[in-house]
Design a protein that fits this description.
By secondary structure, the protein is α/β, with parallel strands linked by helices. Helices cover about 40% and strands about 15% of the residues. The strands form three sheets. It has an eight-stranded parallel beta sheet with strand order 1-5-6-7-10-11-12-13. A three-stranded antiparallel beta sheet has the order 2-3-4. Strands 8-9 form a two-stranded antiparallel ribbon. A hairpin with a 2-residue loop joins strand 8 and strand 9. Helix 3 packs parallel to helix 4 and helix 6 crosses helix 8. The longest helix is centred in the middle third of the chain and has 23 residues. The radius of gyration is 20 Å and the shape is globular.
Length: about 350
Amino acid sequence: MIIDINMHHLPEDLFSNEKILNGFLSTAPRSYGEIASLGTLESGKRQLILEKPKGYQNLNYVEGDYSLEAKLKAMDDAGVDKAILRVPVWQEWLQLDTCKVVNDNAAEMCRESAGRLYANAVLPPWGGKENLYELERCLKDLGMVGVQLACHYGQLYLDDEVFKPYLKVLNELEVPVVVHHTPLPVYWQSIYEYTNLRRELGRIIDQATAVGRELFSGIFEDFPSLKFIHTMLGGNWFANYHLLTPHKTKKKEAMSRLDTSGMEQISSYLKNNIFYDMTHPASWGKAEVECAIKVCGADHVLFGSSFPVFYGWMSEGVEFVRTLDISEEERELVTNGNARRLFKLQ
């Protein structure tokens, strides 16, 4: 079985419903340089574009790509059995009224999918009764299997005090949390001119920063039941795993330049609280993904395609995972076992 935990969802009538479209366009914060606009491809299809700074595109949502029909056809073509929906990136800014529409549409799509689709709830992360009522509605009434967060909101990463009321509730509910990347990290000025740096490395930097801050801030000490599933392999966290959790040297040094205290605790957080979405795995390369699975553990890595950013990311991703030099038990965990366990899927 193949379960894709990173299938993008937008309301199917996003481009035809003026109220919903305005709910997306109007929330991108222009005061922070986020420029949202409508454009048209040569094919005549419309697209929702996000630029930062002006003239440098970071997101392109194309009309028609997000329909139930398109999802199921792509899944059939690629051999994906089930998928879990999430809103791509825009959840950083959506207001509660728009979130409700997005959640309703996702739930309806799941109902019409004959059991092949599930969804994550999207809502503002600030606590507050109205937001928490929406969380309860999504989990109890709409049957959603997880919650999604952005790895930062504005300039605030998830270790900030402002998120604690919401994280406390998620911890008590023991609901899995998908932590999706944002278009760019908080400090992006040195990478925006070059497309691949802006659209790929920017997400890597953002995720790695988020994971690091979560680990070193101790939020998992306060909320030990949280399960965060980070995109982009946690921002290449497998490459930083040992570098950022240094052990004490046997020789007495003149001074201590790195913090080696509490590394056992950090390792326990990595074991119990942090998981990784492969996020279009074929893009990484065989050696890199095998290394990530070896370092992080096959029980911590989940298949995700980011469909429909590229249609090939799903089909090539499925074939790619079959070529990995890992055991069949490990392959089973990556392709479906971890998803079934974390999201409590039947």
